[in-house]
């Protein structure tokens, strides 16, 4: 008998893995400009940690002819839960890329990979060693952790349904447009307002990856530091209504959008009811009114190039 609610066995977002043709330039950006720390290197492969995060790495960068999301990784509490998720997906006809087993990535652990409905590779893992991390100091404008990942989807309703049905993601809020309908779904797997969001786009691709800074001061210092480095700012600084978090969006050298944020909302999951926000209302996009206006040109910057990795598992 199927229960109405799939039991949630995913605990949190771990990392987002990107493949890029301009690997050297990207590595320079993520380390010297964005503030991540290269912890493990291989030829054409770097694992980048956030100083304040217990995760072994929050971004993996791989050199490739094709620009793509290699994978999005989520954590589970233990190996039994990893097995349970894999069995559930397989019985539902979801294509597994790999069976559960020992991971060969930094920190080891136990996990498996599968394709989501549009062909993105997703990894679920448990028992990964905790990284030696530290408290980020006052005034230190580097990422504390990976906050959330937003994906573009050509079928946002189907993608939302996939993550709800198979992985027990819950809807926190929806952004809509009076003419274009529902435009973005904010999805959670714990008390954070969203770990994943799904945006309506022309093709599957990365919309943005977001990094939590220590607080408002550090977020503004970080925004200024990246601006002074000459990086193209797309949108911000401002404060969204959905999630109540701050935002400054920048384009990395490959044209992937990266966000600095802070103060993402923690919701009471027992009492939370999703809102439907009309993002043509200026205060929905930006409660402060400090950011440049969200228009079609700003929106198109985050459509990104079509992902070249759909239904193609990354080589590592």
Secondary structure elements and pairings:
Layout: E1 10-20, H1 23-33, E2 37-42, E3 45-49, E4 59-63, E5 68-76, H2 79-91, E6 96-102, E7 110-115, E8 121-126, E9 145-153, H3 156-167, E10 170-177, E11 181-188, E12 196-200, E13 205-212, H4 216-228, E14 233-239, E15 246-251, E16 257-261, E17 275-278, H5 282-285, H6 296-301
Parallel strand pairs: 1-4, 5-8, 9-12, 10-17, 13-16
Antiparallel strand pairs: 1-5, 2-3, 3-4, 6-7, 7-8, 9-13, 10-11, 11-12, 14-15, 15-16
Domain VOC: 12-127, 145-263
Keywords: Metal-binding
Organism: Cryptosporangium minutisporangium
Q: How many helices in DSSP terms?
A: 6
Rg over alpha carbons = 18 Å
Q: What name does CATH use for the topology of the largest domain?
A: 2,3-Dihydroxybiphenyl 1,2-Dioxygenase, domain 1
Structural class: alpha/beta
CATH class of the largest domain: Alpha Beta
The overall number of domains is 2
- Spatial shape: globular
Number of beta strands:
17
**Neighbour order of strands in the largest sheet:** 14-15-16-13-9-12-11-10-17
Order of helices and strands: EHEEEEHEEEEHEEEEHEEEEHH
CATH architecture level-2 label of the largest domain: Roll
The N- to C-terminal Cα distance equals 38 Å
Largest sheet: 9 strands, mixed
Percent of residues in beta strands? Answer: 35-45%
Mean pLDDT: 96
CATH homology group of the largest domain:
2,3-Dihydroxybiphenyl 1,2-Dioxygenase, domain 1
Sequence stretches where pLDDT stays below 50 over 5 or more residues: none
Helix proportion: 10-25%
Keywords: Metal-binding
Domain VOC: 12-127, 145-263
Protein name: VOC family protein
């Amino acid at each position: 008998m199927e229960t109405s609610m799939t039991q949630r066995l995913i605990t949190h977002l771990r990392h987002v893995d990107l493949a890029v043709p301009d690997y050297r330039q990207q590595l320079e950006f993520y380390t010297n400009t964005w503030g991540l720390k290269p912890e493990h290197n291989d030829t054409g492969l770097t694992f980048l940690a956030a100083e304040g995060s217990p995760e072994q790495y929050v971004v993996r960068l791989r050199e490739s002819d094709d620009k793509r999301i290699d994978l999005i990784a989520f954590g589970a509490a233990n190996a039994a839960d990893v097995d349970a998720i894999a069995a559930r997906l397989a019985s539902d006809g979801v294509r597994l890329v790999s069976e559960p087993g020992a991971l060969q990535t930094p920190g080891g652990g136990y996990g498996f990979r599968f394709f989501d409905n549009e062909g993105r590779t997703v990894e679920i893992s448990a028992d990964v060693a905790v990284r030696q991390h530290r408290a980020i100091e006052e005034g230190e404008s580097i990422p504390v952790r990976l906050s959330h990942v937003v994906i573009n989807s050509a079928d946002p309703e189907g993608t939302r349904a996939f993550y709800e049905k198979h992985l027990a993601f819950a809807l926190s809020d929806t952004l809509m447009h009076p003419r274009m309908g529902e435009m973005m779904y904010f999805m959670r797997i714990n008390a954070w307002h969203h770990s994943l969001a799904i945006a309506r786009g022309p093709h599957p691709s990365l919309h943005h990856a977001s990094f939590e800074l220590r607080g408002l001061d550090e977020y503004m210092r970080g925004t200024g530091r990246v601006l002074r480095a000459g990086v193209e700012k797309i949108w911000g600084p401002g404060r969204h209504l959905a999630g109540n978090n701050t935002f400054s969006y920048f384009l990395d050298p490959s044209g992937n959008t990266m966000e600095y944020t802070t103060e993402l909302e923690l919701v009471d999951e027992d009492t939370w009811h999703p809102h439907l926000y009309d993002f043509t209302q200026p205060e929905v996009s930006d409660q402060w009114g400090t950011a440049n206006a969200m228009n079609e040109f700003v929106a198109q910057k985050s459509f990104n190039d079509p992902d070249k990795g759909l239904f193609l598992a990354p080589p590592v």
